[in-house]
Amino acid sequence: MASSISGIYTSSPSLKRFPNQTPPLTQPLRKNHISFHARRADRTLSLATPHAVAREVSDGAAAAAAKGLEKDPRALWRRYVDWLYQHKELGLYLDVSRVGFTDEFVREMEPHFGKAFEAMEELEKGAIANPDEGRMVGHYWLRDPKRAPNSFLKTQIENTLDAVSKFANDVVSGKIKPPSSPEGRFTQILSVGIGGSALGPQFVAEALAPDNPPLKIRFVDNTDPAGIDHQIAQLGPELASTLVIVISKSGGTPETRNGLLEVQKAFREAGLNFPKQGVAITQENSLLDNTARIEGWLARFPMFDWVGGRTSEMSAVGLLPAALQGIDIREMLAGASLMDEANRSTVLRNNPAALLALCWYWATDGVGSKDMVILPYKDSLLLFSRYLQQLVMESLGKEFDLDGNRVNQGISVYGNKGSTDQHAYIQQLREGVHNFFVTFIEVLRDRPPGHDWELEPGVTCGDYLFGMLQGTRSALYANDRESITVSVQEVTPRTVGALIALYERAVGIYASLININAYHQPGVEAGKKAAGEVLALQKRVLAVLNEASCKDPIEPLTLEEVADRCHAPEDIEMIYKIIAHMAANDRALIAEGSCGSPRGIKVFLGECNIDESYA
Ligand SMILES: O=P(O)(O)OC[C@H]1O[C@H](O)[C@H](O)[C@@H](O)[C@@H]1O
């Protein structure tokens, strides 16, 4: 069954970005910020390069901020209450009281938030908010299709959601079944994808999958042959009842393609008919889409060019795997939609995403001078920080701002879960280099009603978890380490949807404050290109070694000879690495010397490949 995939919206020619808007400030805010902190630090700063100043400011600001952190319990309580954000319907709280921003700072930032809110409003109306790629940015429409800029897109979103829901129901109910499985129904999902085509589904599976889901999910999210073999081995005979979902927006990502080819090989070797167990989620007419269509895969679902990989969890990318695991995807969408509505407030204090952006700007001086440590005190949210690494760092980690200034922006993200991380690196956070701020994710309900018990009089296991979070928050703050706390009642599809929406919007607002495009990823292409060059060089090395190995007698070659015959003397080190990797996999043989002594090594191929397919 192929879902109805109609033409994808082609973005209109790149319009001048928000022609009616005065572009957001670029450096001045930081200078204001700098001057503000300079005043605070009673120091006059020689305004050297932005970085030097930012560095001096961040030291000065940190010192000033540290000196300025409120410590009086009564005053802190007032601050807590004054700044506490509550979303009643979601049961979500945001506490920013342990971040030391001042009233003056907030006043300075207000006009910039005003511009950010305007930019976000334009974005949601369909402006070209990704000017570098001439694209709209439409992930918010996925959970509120009526906000899409035209009926065509609205219908696409609604049709895709219906198709995803129907397909998942048919698989779970057994109406759609694998061609040759003793169970008579699909029992496993093997998701093949990387980056935004994996991290969201992985986070949501870890957070929300029931203990006994209708289909268990596992992931191939890399081109590591051993990792792929491990997943296939763990499936064993259940490969026959595995639904393989191949996810790739571009449809051409090498790691995902390799994963597909490896899995298809496993299907062949097991005598299984892959297309009858394969599903593709990709842009229409991509290489993957055409492959799936031509080979007659079980189903295809669209990805849209106006949804980025790192904001695709509320598209078929995240919704299909979730639905197949029995997760309520309408609730995920509802939670995200409620959070989106809250984040449309133009009153800073009533806008949780803006409050996060305010804290990020204050804590990192608007230049990423501190890292964002994500600490959920809940096992099921373990992968939230990995998910946020891509969402935050791939969005904000940019070399240039929208006016072409070199800014090398970003905020680094790390963290796992509490209280576990207290036994790993919290020592450094408490006493070591002060280069971070923490975001605690607190989940108030410890266990389903009626399932809790006291492991000592009046104390439950969850009380310990609660105490560890609060104790760590207090201990860090006592040593002038700032933190944010996001609290939810429990981990549900609705609150997970809300958390995703909260951070998607915070990233977008923060990006406006620092005047960068949050929706492209030029740096990633450089890595892909470089990898392609290594593989091209490897093919030349193989051709040269093959020619020498087909001689009689075989002619082992030195690295210099290989480099010369590849016409790449300057690449001798990469050639050495290529040969070392091939030798480690028995694909090249060392005739003399060893890889430890590159100068004396002589290599050849174990066999002569007369058709020279390496060329
Ligand atoms: O979904 P795909 O097109 O296969 O892309 C997978 C990933 O590739 C690159 O790393 C991009 O920077 C990511 O944003 C994207 O999620």
UniProtKB/TrEMBL annotation:
Pathways per UniProt: Carbohydrate degradation; glycolysis; D-glyceraldehyde 3-phosphate and glycerone phosphate from D-glucose: step 2/4
Gene Ontology molecular function: carbohydrate derivative binding; glucose-6-phosphate isomerase activity; monosaccharide binding
CDD domains, alphabetized: SIS_PGI_1, SIS_PGI_2
Keywords: Gluconeogenesis, Glycolysis, Isomerase
GO CC term, one of those recorded: cytosol
Keyword Isomerase found: yes
SUPFAM superfamilies given in the database record: SIS domain
Example GO biological process: glucose 6-phosphate metabolic process
Protein family (similarity comment): Belongs to the GPI family.
Descriptive protein name: Glucose-6-phosphate isomerase
Organism for this UniProt entry: Vigna mungo
